[in-house]
Design a protein that fits this description.
The chain has 547 residues and is of the alpha/beta class. The protein folds into two domains: 276 residues, Rossmann fold, CATH 3.40.50.1110; 248 residues, Rossmann fold (3-Layer(aba) Sandwich), CATH 3.40.50.1110. Helix content is 33%, strand content 19%. The chain has 15 helices and 18 strands. Strands 1, 2, 3, 4, 5, 6, 7, 8, 9 and 10 form a ten-stranded mixed sheet that branches. Strands 11, 12, 13, 14, 15, 16, 17 and 18 form an eight-stranded mixed sheet that branches. A hairpin with a 4-residue loop joins strand 12 and strand 13. The relative contact order is 0.11.
């Protein structure tokens, strides 16, 4: 932690009333462009997401100084209680909630953000152009720190949260030099704010947005630039965001911004990253106390895999009690479960009893899938392993991948399946790889080139899995929800094409999942629909197995 300009050492994880300096206040800076502003989020939508209800209420205990926007700026002109600005939900709201719950001491937040701005230009410390965001940043942070000192506080510049880069990818020079430009930015901020040990948290550009699909080579360049800095700067941390929610737009449903849910989870990610650096680890999850089956029995291992809805983007445990048999799904089941979600962002360390395990009080179809399998045949021991990345597209699951090599999931997926088989053996049981249930990428169905290429890519994924797992007859179940219905993509009958691909192989099965509860959003399934999907998957695999 840095008190401008004095270096301090303070372990937040062990703060006590005797170690907290009475008038010390930790100051956090949030800066960047539209996805730092909170673009396309709405305060009224927060109540749609149970884990985050109440975070938009003004907080008198958290000081907030903001300058947000470009030509028409929302300028607080000093400290105000932390609250939404212009009806937008920024990541600072959940960040403040989580940090104040986990640590002691006062905090204050300074936010300077403007959509459509460039690190190569507007935020350039050496030659700021355009909206000249860098001078504005320094002016605002300095004024905020000075004001706190005048009020008798000892301000400590604690962390700098940066989310920016989408606009730099449209300029060839800015894109190619994003890494060096970012390194220079960090260096100059530390120098100009007299904070040589200031920690930076660099937010990943979300690959779930439309730009993550049609501009993946450019996005990959920015990501490489960011990682080139965080990999060598011990005080800079790369914060993944591709697993968070993204706003559902009109037309095909794809969007450029996180929107409300994504911003709420964006803030939770930043808080978690900060708290880990301060030694505050999340509470460990309960492992399985004992293996629930005879150690000599063969166990059917089911692998669940996929994207947004297999991960469970909008299925919340707080809503389970409103669903038939939902309360039972919220309780741990005697079914061994392990998982890697968000592309490895959130993963189990051992077998756990099957129960909700998502990062944000979320869950996927695994709960109802497991419960239904058990109800259909209690004599057959089962275990479930789930591998998902809600910010991926089908191309990322193929052995070849794409030009964005860092997004290739195939090696990790193969390793996860092998590790899951080994984990069953370590329990003393004999694993049988019963099958892989893959829910087809939702975003792929909304962009013409990816929708057109989906069947071929799924076939490549299956062939790669069978080869690398040395299981040529591996059963694979391709689950597909009704695809995007829009004139721009409807000339590609992806359901028929996927069914035709599966029909050429007796061990590849395809089913269009029809009968979902009514949904008010494209692409994403709500709590009730995710539960329905898990049950439908279980009925299907048992039906195939009984043939």
């Amino acid at each position: 932690m840095i008190k401008v300009p004095i270096l301090l050492s303070l372990a937040i994880a062990v703060l006590s009333p005797s170690t907290v300096i009475a008038d010390q206040i930790r100051v956090f800076v949030f800066a960047g462009q539209s996805n730092m502003e909170g673009a396309d989020s709405k305060v009224a939508d927060v109540d749609r997401f149970p884990p985050f209800r109440g975070v938009t209420d003004p907080r008198e205990d958290v000081r907030f100084w903001h300058v947000i926007g470009r030509e028409d700026k929302a300028d607080s002109k000093g400290w105000v209680p932390l609250q939404p600005v212009r009806n937008m939900v920024g990541p600072e709201l959940v960040f403040a909630r989580d940090v104040t719950k986990a640590t002691k001491g006062d905090i204050a937040i300074v936010k300077v953000a403007a959509g459509g701005t460039h690190l190569g230009g507007d935020w350039n410390p050496d030659d700021p152009s355009g909206f000249e965001m860098y001078p504005l940043l320094l002016k605002t942070v300095r004024a905020a720190m000075a004001d706190l000192e005048e009020r008798g506080f000892e301000p400590v510049l604690e962390g700098f949260f940066w989310h920016q880069g989408e606009n730099d990818m449209f300029d060839e020079g800015y894109r190619a030099n994003y890494g060096p430009n970012l390194a220079n930015f960090l260096k100059r901020v530390r120098t100009d704010l007299e904070a040589p040990e200031l920690r930076f948290y660099i937010g990943e550009l979300c690959t779930k947005t439309i730009w993550g699909m049609d501009l993946r080579p450019r996005m990959a360049d920015i990501a490489r630039g960011q990682r080139s800095v965080t990999e060598v700067d011990p005080l800079a941390r790369y914060v993944p965001t591709s697993h968070v929610g993204v706003e559902i737009g009109g037309g095909q449903g794809l969007h450029y911004h996180y929107g409300t849910l994504g911003q709420l989870e964006h803030g939770a990610n930043y808080a978690a990253a900060y708290l880990v650096n301060e030694g505050v680890e999340p509470s460990p999850r309960a492992g399985m106390k004992r293996w629930p089956y005879s150690r000599t029995r063969e166990v059917d291992l089911w692998i669940l895999a996929g994207h947004r809805n297999m991960e469970g983007e909008r299925a919340f445990i707080q809503e389970l009690e409103q669903i038939d048999d939902g309360k039972g799904l919220a309780r741990p089941q005697r079914i061994p479960y392990r998982y890697s979600t968000g592309g490895g962002v959130h993963a189990s360390t051992d077998w756990e009893p099957l129960a909700p395990a998502g990062l944000y009080d979320t869950f996927g179809p695994e709960l109802s899938f497991g419960a239904r399998l058990r109800s259909l045949d209690r004599r057959r021991p089962i275990a479930i392993a789930k591998f998902t990345h809600s910010g991926s597209q089908i191309i990322d699951w193929t052995p070849e991948g794409s030009v964005a090599k860092a997004r290739n999931l195939h090696p990790d997926f193969v390793a996860f399946v092998k590790a899951s088989m080994a984990a069953v053996r370590e329990s003393g049981a004999r694993p049988r790889l019963a099958g892989i249930v893959y829910h087809v990428g939702e975003n792929d169905m909304s962009w013409h080139p990816f929708r057109q290429g989906a069947p071929e890519r799924v076939a490549a994924m299956i062939a790669g899995l069978r080869k690398d797992l040395d299981t040529p007859d591996l059963p694979v179940f391709i689950s597909q929800q009704p695809p995007t219905d829009h004139e721009s993509v409807n000339n590609v009958d992806v359901v028929a094409a996927m069914a035709a691909m599966a029909s050429t192989d007796p061990n590849t099965h395809h089913r269009l999942m029809a009968g979902f509860p009514s949904q008010d959003r494209q692409l994403v399934l709500d709590t009730e629909a995710v539960v329905w999907l898990g049950r439908a998957m279980a009925d299907w695999v048992v039906e195939v197995d009984d043939r």
